[in-house]
């Protein structure tokens, strides 16, 4: 018999599990050995060896290797071996950089891997989907992706979209009864749910019957998701730029070689020098360093609780000009506590500490017994019935499992002495219509022990009021007149203006055994019982974060399903509402076209009582106004807006899989302040990339120009090929990487957002590259000419001085690159990685100059103190000459 033909008991037995407690820890260990992990096998990855060899596939590197080979055959052993060694070391560096980039991208994928709610040892826990085993009991609700193949054992209006397996995009309704037919297609297995399919509505519980490659999904391997290419706009731009730079570098090299030959240098020497120059000057390593800088930045973001799912977002983050954020849980703590209750004109208050289910009820400051008032009793009891949350104790702390709003209602009822445990004998829940943010209600159909059946609905008070016909007033049912509606409105307003989140409770009796199939049938003609108002304190760090965003030219917009007045009160506390900003309700948003919304959207700081569907309109309107929009969300219906936003952000704790999949950034702590931290990091990463682009290119310009100038002036070669390669190796690698790890400048969050259209060389970067590069070249040439003038017979001496000047000039210039303003704008030694990188590069330089066995290889001779004074003076010029203008302008 197959699982879909079995009834629940048979399934339980066949899988040797316990539906009420799940698997035990021991059983998990045993089954792990038997079944392994719930993973789909991925396609082949590039092997380490291939990756290593791919470092040498660059055209110029191949030409260089060929040229050295020829020079080796001609007898120049030392030179050719040394050049090959440097090329290999360079290859290793590139290899490690790419490996690191790849590894951290893999780690990212792992972090954003889906989670599954599973019942083990009697407790519901969230575990990575990878760890699910056959026999595990798992639960899921709207927005979740099913983590394995399951046989359903509970289904509440459960609908699943199975297009990944069946191609059918209409969701299928699910049930739990055993099916008769043995051979059914996936689309007909209505009591089963399959890995990779998506819950579009309702909720359910199921027992896992297959994992990993044994699932239906595992069997159609060609459908496995391929890894997305994660190239950022800057990387793409750099790739194009790289091509141009190659051409420019080659042309200049040809020019150097041509002029050199014309000036009487021999062709062979010039050719090798030219190729070495081309290899050094072409920034082929740039893309890899950019990836490393991006992924290191991404790791710093993880430490700040932000997971980047799509690498391009790192760059876009720095351009964000508006953050649209949910309120509940993101700006507030999502720790709800009922403090006020209202029914029939009376307002009660409740006290208590945190989630502890103990507290007293007061009516106008007088202690009362909540069980003595029928309306209050019903308000609390129904709030607990229409509710999935659980309260449990862990290390003396009371915690809520489930929706915090429901947790608050449950605890309020517990404070009055009601208990969930006592319910089963008294009430039986026949059907449930789960909560959704668009309806803003949840309903159950329930039978009591007298056999009476009724609908209990809880939800947003203004919505519930619209579907109520009567009101419970002093234990009597009254027709809901305009006047009474006004009274309720006032009560809602009173609670909301105290920044309380409000929930209303209503009910209606129905005939026993009537079939209510749709929520619209249940949620009409209700009798309004009353309100519960709960506090949800703002997160303390949000106010500062909002302020910092404002200074950074980023506007914060609150988008919430909550009541307009509540939203306004909280936005006021957080500094989101300024004098001129407006609050717009969901109804108004519905009635406006995108064009109309566009006209007012710049003035709106709070959108309240909106449905997730409105978010897309808001994103569009903002984008049409030229904004770069970051938008948060957690539910299925938020996904389109998250996708459409420039930076889609999903909640890590409360977010559904669908929202996470649509997002570029996931907040592990659901916290608004984390968005700000990510933006700051995003801005910094981009600035750091600019820093090393500037450094590397200026260095390359310097290297090419010194050779070109020398040839034009009919001088001997100022640097031999191996020296050129060495400069490139020791000055490009470590210092550039260290710039990628630089701390942000103090004013990163005081500047306006960058335009996403900005080119690589904007904001004066091109000028900086050319001017510094020119000066580095000129200083090196000057050093060479002075030394050569002093000892015309000793070319190696002049070349050593030029070599040292070039290295030193670059290593001084690297400190200048830390700031867009000037080397004096910040403590030059503030980046300890950079200081160490520079020290190690200096040591390497000293070794090749002073270690005798290396001298013949590098064509160096030991130089003396007086030479170093000349070198130091000249190599400081490129950095300090232009920095001096900054100081002068500052003192003016
Ligand atoms: P945000 O969009 O900032 O997260 P929110 O959480 O208040 O705001 P929703 O979850 O859409 O947005 O809730 C909208 C309204 O629906 C709430 O103000 C509340 O009145 C009601 N509500 C929230 N949760 C439930 C629930 N579990 N059952 C019934 N009604 C609920």
The CATH superfamily name of the largest domain is Calcium-transporting ATPase, transmembrane domain
Number of helical stretches of at least 4 residues: 31
Given the helix and strand composition, which structural class is it? alpha+beta
| Ions, cofactors and other bound molecules | adenosine-5'-triphosphate
The CATH class of the largest domain: Mainly Alpha
Arithmetic mean of pLDDT:
86
Give the strand tally: 28
How many domains is the backbone divided into?
Answer: 5
Percentage of residues in DSSP E strands: 15-25%
Produce a short descriptive summary.
It contains 31 helices and 28 strands. Helix 23 links the parallel strand 26 and strand 27. It folds into five domains: 3-42 and 110-216, Calcium-transporting ATPase, cytoplasmic transduction domain A (Distorted Sandwich), CATH 2.70.150; 48-101; 233-301 and 680-891, Calcium-transporting ATPase, transmembrane domain (Up-down Bundle), CATH 1.20.1110.10; 306-332 and 540-670, Rossmann fold; 339-535, Calcium-transporting ATPase, cytoplasmic domain N, CATH 3.40.1110.10.
How would you characterize this protein structure?
Belongs to the cation transport ATPase (P-type) (TC 3.A.3) family. Type IIA subfamily. This is P-type Ca(2+) transporter. Pfam families: Cation_ATPase, Cation_ATPase_C, Cation_ATPase_N, E1-E2_ATPase. Helices cover 47% and strands 18% of the residues. It is an alpha+beta fold. The protein folds into five domains: 3-42 and 110-216, Calcium-transporting ATPase, cytoplasmic transduction domain A (Distorted Sandwich); 48-101; 233-301 and 680-891, Calcium-transporting ATPase, transmembrane domain, CATH 1.20.1110.10; 306-332 and 540-670, Rossmann fold, CATH 3.40.50.1000; 339-535, Calcium-transporting ATPase, cytoplasmic domain N. Mean pLDDT is 86; it is low at 223-229. The protein has 31 helices and 28 strands. Adenosine-5'-triphosphate binds next to helix 13, strand 17, strand 18 and strand 21.
